[in-house]
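Let us practice reading a record.
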Amino acid sequence: MPTPSPRLRTRIKVCGITTSEAAQAAVDAGADAIGFVFVKDTPRYIDPEEAAAIMYSLPPFVSAVGVVQDLSVDEFCALEYACPAHTMQLHGKESVDVVAACGPGIIKAFKYEDATINSQLTRWAKVDEVDALLIDGSTGGTGESFNWKNLVPHLIDYPKKIIIAGGLDETNVGEVIKILRPYAVDVSTGVEDAPAIKNPQKIIDFCAAVRAADV
């Protein structure tokens, strides 16, 4: 099992934020980061300028993460100019060259698959511009999980931070933390009443479950 430093705690990202009220609920519950989805034609899409207004209202030490998918470098730069999020998450099939050009400080996300996990981890470990990998149960936003235990042997001595997403909620996030000890967990559908409709109590319960698992 991957063994973290005892000084670390599991970070929490609440993704798919579309309103200032949802952002405040995440902040109040103790989230470390909120995520804005800049992928058009998806339920949680937010205009970059609207996201920027929310981002500028965040208190110190709460980060904004912009989620993009399969943009060109020019498109990425234009979006980043409109909403200069603290971190950008690339959640598509971007090439190594594109990811490197969009860095530094990138979160590279991909779907967990038994057949490709070794090659994915090996590829992105070599890219200095990638600070962390987000491993999802799907290509994003569908609330699908994966068998976390299958990931355990792949993370032994892995050099980059790992974020786990996909199908997490207050009932199972403690289990994934105990199994994988990730740097962070990412939740969206698990704290919603409907796509893009965040439930403040579910956010509170999710954050509390993370803290309980860290003890």
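A brief commentary: The mean pLDDT is 94.
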